[in-house]
Amino acid sequence: xxxxxxxxxxxxxxxxxxxxxxxxxxxxxxxxxxxxxxxxxxxxxxxxxxxxxxxxxxxxxxxxxxxxxxxxxxxxxxxxxxxxxxxxxxxxxxxxxxxxxxxxxxxxxxxxxxxxxxxxxxxxxxxxxxxxxxxxxxxxxxxxxxxxxxxxxxxxxxxxxxxxxxxxxxxx
Length: 172
Description:
The chain is α+β, with helices and mostly antiparallel strands. Helix content is 15%, strand content 37%.
């Protein structure tokens, strides 16, 4: 996709492409070669995505995929939707394949720029503490079902998330 990682209108906003909407048991991935979304897997019964999940276009994270983003917004988006977001934080984390090596697999947390309910939230520190804990637990559980270990190292602020995006942008 030829979409800038940082919104050209306002440089404090990022562009996010939604892969998997809130409430879905199905995990979708954008296939760069085929230029379409494909079903990657189905979560176990009782597990769903707690928020929309997507990626920052034209970025390349340490795991070889675009940078992951959990998008908090008022209503679910849909697969392929471009959402302008304000990065409010990042979970810096290590991920380990079963019997494999550890690699960084950070997750950005962002708020939709169109949100009414969350428009005043500027930092992950302003989120409900239980919500933050549940976000961590979702990623740990999600990875455990794939035979991987997801270990949160620390939470950092939105500015740290923006620096990572700028550093890992591969096309502008």
